[in-house]
Amino acid sequence: MTHFWSSRRVLVTGGFGFLGANVVRKLMERGAREVFRFRSTDADLTRLSDVQGLLAECRPDMVVHCAARVGGIGANMRRPAEFFYDNLMMGAQLLHESWKAGVGKFVGIGTICSYPKHLPIPFKEEDFWNGYPEETNAPYGLAKKVLSVQAQAYRKQYDFNAITLLPVNLYGPGDHFDPEISHVIPALMKKCMDAIAEGRNEVTCWGDGSPTREFLYVEDAAEAIVLAAERYDSGEPVNIGAGFEISIRELAERIQRVTGFSGRLTWDPSQPGGQPRRLLDTSRAEKAFGFKAATSLEEGLQKTYAWYAMNR
Q1: pTM tops 0.90, yes or no
Q2: How far is the CA of 136 from the CAs of 11, 141, 187, 210, 290, in angstroms?
Q3: Rounded CA Rg of the chain
Q4: Which of 167, 127, 236, 231 is nearest to 18 (CA)?
Q5: Each residue of 173-221: pLDDT tens digit?
Q6: Which residues are catalytic?
Q7: Within 13 Å and on the Cβ side, how many CA atoms surround 288?
Q8: Quick one: which of 55, 114, 192, 241 could link to 145 by a disulfide (CB 3.0–4.6 Å)?
Q9: Is the dihedral of CA 240, 150, 160, 105 positive or negative?
Q10: Would you give the DSSP letter of residue 134?
Q11: How far apart are CA 67 and CA 94, in angstroms?
Q12: Which domains does the chain have, with CATH numbers?
């Protein structure tokens, strides 16, 4: 698809972030010549004037909206208002102003957290509205869910080509290891490596270990986004996942082995464990634009550990 990208100006919000930087790299590998990204210190997407100025300066043919206020269960519980407001305002203003500026396509990145708390496994896109999200991250999930409605509304009224992708939990090199905002894989990896460094023989994990999750390596997620940007032009949201389910307990044991931590894993059931189960039906993504995850969890954990061991 080199010709496709060589003729387009692409703005990637969050382009220096964990996911966005991988999307930018994938675009460059495909021959994109004009890819624009910026730091949050240069433009605040919750400010309308900054959004308008950014679009006027870049004049993109396509916007890939990777910027988001994200974090693990703890961060979502401590800052629910920020997670709702920032994600809603960034996305709503950017999509509206992109339409006004004549952008050809808008790629919105949603979240698995928008799905209802209790659903049959695997989650299908048709069940997206069949209940309320899990409470600990509902404000974040609902803000992203509203943006998917906006995309469909602008498609219906203005024929604006806005799509929504719903990725599962991401991980990989460059992830956030700060315990204030980290998700479960970097949080557990840091706990194990800190215990080794400090000579401790015990690591405490949140919950009872029974909830299940699906994890997608960040490079695979970026590949899915670029494929969808090239090939998908429908208003229906699309699940982006790896197609497997693992309990948090088993995940912690795998991370223990990868990091070489030989002590005990203990569980604190007084802390929240989040949604009981998560697993996506990814058949729509494979059928619509040919995406299938390529990186196994074992390989991804090894690469993540190697990166963190070098950069911590």
Answers
A1: yes
A2: 32, 10, 17, 17, 33
A3: 19
A4: 167
A5: 999 998 777 889 999 999 999 999 999 999 999 899 999 999 999 999 9
A6: 140
A7: 23
A8: 114
A9: negative
A10: P
A11: 11
A12: 2-172+215-244+278-295 (3.40.50.720)
